[in-house]
Each structure stands twice: as structure tokens, then as C-alpha cells.
Specification:
- With about 70 residues, the protein is α/β, with parallel strands linked by helices.
- It has one domain.
- It is about 40% helix and about 20% strand.
- It has three helices and three strands, in the order αβαβαβ.
- It has a three-stranded parallel sheet, with helices on one face.
- About 10% of the residues are buried.
Length: about 70
């Protein structure tokens, strides 16, 4: 379901749209596989809900949080 919503969001807002998916660790593989099938992996960054602090602290290479659509 998340991939369908993200796909429609990208279609409505343009190809340069970035997506940030916040998810529990248990579903990471499934989410990544599904987003790959929908052709969204280049536009999407995945972060587990236990790692949200990394985004606000500037750790890792996440895109600016203001430029992402957050779903989770």
C-alpha cells in the first residue's frame, strides 16, 4: 500500500520528488523489494523508526528533511 501511495505522489508532484519512508525494522526487506518493483528506489530513502534521531542530528546521508515526503 505504501508503494502505491508513493507512486501516485511522485506522479502528482513530479519526477524530482523525494520520499522518506520511516518503518519498523521487521518490514525493511519487504518495503525495499516492493518499492523496487514500483520503480521508486532512486527517489526513496528508508529509515527505521529507531533511527529517526540520525536525520535530525545530520548523521548519515539523508536528504534535507524539508524536501522529503514522510510516510510511516
Amino acid at each position: 500500500m505504501a508503494a502505491r501511495i508513493a507512486k501516485r505522489f511522485v506522479e502528482a508532484n513530479g519526477r524530482n520528488t523525494n520520499i522518506l519512508i520511516v518503518h519498523p525494522p521487521a518490514v525493511e526487506t519487504n518495503l525495499k523489494d516492493t518499492f523496487k518493483l514500483f520503480g521508486l528506489t532512486k527517489k526513496t530513502q528508508f529509515v527505521t523508526n529507531g533511527s529517526l534521531s540520525h536525520i535530525s542530528e545530520g548523521k548519515h546521508n539523508y536528504k534535507d528533511k524539508e524536501n522529503n515526503f514522510v510516510m510511516g
